[in-house]
Design a protein that fits this description.
- This protein is α/β, with parallel strands linked by helices and about 400 residues long.
- The chain has one domain: FAD/NAD(P)-binding domain (3-Layer(bba) Sandwich), CATH 3.50.50.60.
- The chain contains 16 helices and 18 strands.
- Strand 13 and strand 14 form a beta hairpin.
- Helix 1 packs parallel to helix 10, helix 2 packs across helix 10 and helix 10 packs antiparallel against helix 11.
- The longest helix is centred in the C-terminal third of the chain and has 19 residues.
- The radius of gyration is 21 Å and the shape is globular.
- The structure holds flavin-adenine dinucleotide.
- Flavin-adenine dinucleotide binds next to helix 1, strand 2, strand 3, strand 12 and helix 9.
Length: about 400
């Protein structure tokens, strides 16, 4: 079967890799002009199942070697002493396996593993999809029209395939009441340092490979902001206005805002669509069920669900789009519960939370691991991390000669 995947970030390459292992012919169309440079993007986490999947792909060691190596978080407070958090112990308390890596590094490693077998079309985008029940006719901005057996949208929170197939984003987006901005700055130190106030958070962390740092800002607003998502200048002005009176190191960080060419700004929002397939077209990762950037564990969800989608398509053919939906539903539902909780625990909603968050962050990693595991297992994060077991498709399919 010929499968077209839109998006070459996390879900797209993982899906392409496994489909190739199951003898599908894969094409990936990606809007950016070339594979993202390895050192771009923000830091993302791989937990549990996601680490299992990349291990089965033979990539875990390479991913671990490329990790951020940020091991301590310092929470600075106005009028209080800084709190130091041992991140290794915090993550070990959450899950047996955790790796933090820049998204660009992850994409580079995942895509390299698919480069030989997958046909990549860069600097292009799908313009129309016509599903006649036996296949999908696809037109592109640049490439010639082609017909595929299946088309999968792995093109992120603002998915193009989702818009073309399911309609405009507004009706399927749940705003969690916050915004997020990230950009590169000159070196500000290697560790991670945060400063919180009611409804606002600022963080910096070092990128060891480049000697640069990233500045990250999160804030809540009572009402959704009006802005053009393509207009970076407008978004930079918005961020500067929001933080102009913040103090701490913010004036220094804002000095680098105008020159930042990797500025990212988006709403902390979820995609609430509850079906991820229509005919021969499907969605995977943030495109189908973004659990909210930076607070929802979207990277691990994208990797685990892309693996399941490939396995279901190999097992059931096009009907695998429906069985995939059934298999990942619990994982998706649980992941959707994470974002609002994590937002509450990192952006203080009031003075009490402002006092409590640093204390909890300092105390929890010092508890014995079984007690930490118990604490995590009682909340949404723990439930999502430990949900649905991953099926072993390779063993099932190798027996019938359908897997390499
Ligand atoms: C600032 C920030 C911080 C984050 N922090 C974390 C974290 O700490 N932990 C965590 O687990 N997750 C985090 N995330 C979320 C994580 O990045 C996503 O959940 C994950 O990358 C989802 O992968 P994906 O492949 O589904 O989508 P994406 O990574 O969004 O990739 C979509 C791809 O599709 C491409 N594309 C878009 N439109 C088109 C088009 N029209 N045609 C072709 N290609 C297209 C894009 O260029 C991109 O390559 C964070 C996200 C952000 C923005």
């Amino acid at each position: 079967m010929r499968v077209l995947i839109s998006g070459a970030s996390v879900a797209g390459p993982v899906l392409a890799y496994w489909l190739d292992r199951y003898r599908f012919a894969t094409t990936v169309v990606e809007r950016t002009p070339a594979l993202r440079h390895g050192l771009g993007g923000h830091a993302v986490d791989l937990f549990g199942h996601a680490a299992d999947v990349v291990q089965q792909m033979g990539l875990l060691d390479e991913i671990v070697a490329a990790r951020t190596m940020i091991e301590e978080l310092t929470i600075e407070r106005t009028g209080g002493r800084p709190v130091h958090v041992d991140l290794r112990r915090l993550y070990a308390g959450m899950s047996d396996q955790h790796v933090e890596i820049l998204r660009g590094e992850l994409t580079r490693i995942l895509s390299a593993a698919t480069a030989k077998a997958t046909n990549y079309l860069f600097d292009d985008s799908i313009t129309s999809l016509t599903d006649d029940g036996a296949g999908v006719d696809v037109t592109f901005e640049h490439a010639k029209p082609q017909r595929f057996d299946l088309v999968i949208g792995a093109d992120g929170m603002h998915s193009n395939v989702r818009r073309l197939t399911f309609g405009p984003e507004e009706s399927m987006r749940r705003h969690l009441g916050g915004y997020l901005a990230v950009y590169s700055t000159p070196d500000l130190g290697t560790g991670m340092v945060t400063h919180q106030s009611v409804n606002r958070l600022v963080a910096t962390y070092g990128v060891r490979q480049t000697g640069q740092s990233r500045a990250a800002f999160m804030f809540r607003t009572a009402a959704e902001l009006e802005y053009d998502y393509r207009d970076k200048t407008q978004q930079k002005r918005l961020l500067a206005r929001e933080f102009h009176d913040y103090g701490w190191r913010v004036p220094q960080l804002l000095e680098h805002l105008e020159a930042a060419d990797d500025f990212y700004f988006d709403a902390i929002a979820q995609i609430t669509l509850d079906t991820w397939q229509r005919g021969r077209i499907g969605l995977v990762g943030d495109a189908g069920y973004c659990p909210a950037p930076a607070v929802g564990g979207g990277t691990s969800l994208a990797i685990a669900t892309a693996y399941i989608l490939a396995g279901e398509l190999a097992t059931n053919g096009p009907a695998g789009l429906r069985s995939y939906e059934t298999k990942v539903r619990q994982m998706v539902d649980r992941s959707r519960a994470i974002g609002p909780k994590v937002m509450g625990s990192i952006i203080p909603g009031g003075p009490a939370a402002l006092r409590l968050i640093p204390l909890a962050a300092a105390v929890v990693p010092r508890l014995p691991t079984p007690i930490q595991r118990f604490i995590w297992s009682q909340n949404a994060v723990g439930k999502a991390l430990g949900s649905t077991p991953l099926p072993d498709y390779s063993r099932q399919l190798q027996g019938s000669g359908r897997a390499r």
